[in-house]
Amino acid sequence: MSNENERERDTDMTDRDADHGHGAPLTETQLRVRALESLLVEKGLVDPAALDALIEAYEKKIGPRNGARVVARAWVDPAYKERLLANATAAIAELGFTGRQGEDMVALENTPTVHNVVVCTLCSCYPWPVLGLPPVWYKSAPYRSRAVIDPRGVLRELGVDVGDDVEVRVWDSTAELRYLVLPERPPGTEGMTEEELAALVTRDAMIGVARVEAPAGGQARTGRR
Ligand code: FE
Fold first, then answer.
1. From ligand 1's centre to the CA of 10, what distance in Å?
2. Active-site residues: which are they?
3. CA 20 to 30 Å from 62, out of 97, 134, 151, 197?
4. Ion ligand 1, residue ranges at CB < 5 A
5. For residue 219, is pLDDT > 60?
């Protein structure tokens, strides 16, 4: 899934004010942040579009890079992958990614026969240390309900056709457990370095609503399979 598609989707679904805490009222900090933002915008000191751009950067560019490094490491290092699937919290911490909303991580491996999708049906629980801030569509009511009722339909709309022979597993995040999907390594990437692989891994692939694609045109260096 390209960033372009992610952007379109993000603007399609709007539920900016979705709760982060299972319907809990806003915290003192959230209230203060909102008050501050309103005041700064009102006084013309900040441009809401600039704030949105900053948030978008955390959603797509900065936050998910940590998760992408975890995925790339698992692709190139079978022992690491084993540790990741056995105890994701510890394996992710090996790479230095720890913190709030990432205390109890579970990694879900996508295979040719199993496709995992992550949702938070109640609100927007999301693994911050590896993925950053949740995208707007993840917090939207349509995604939260439909991902459970009709996961194949949602995946199809998002451009992921899952064959009838593939089992779709939907995982509901909670305040206790957060999930990271380990996407399938795309064919044609055999000669790529860990860093190059990490650059291919998108946020959406780690939520399970996209596949990781090999670079367009294949790899000049290693040729295509
Ligand atoms: Fe939640």
1. 19
2. 120, 123-125
3. 151
4. 120, 122-123, 125
5. no
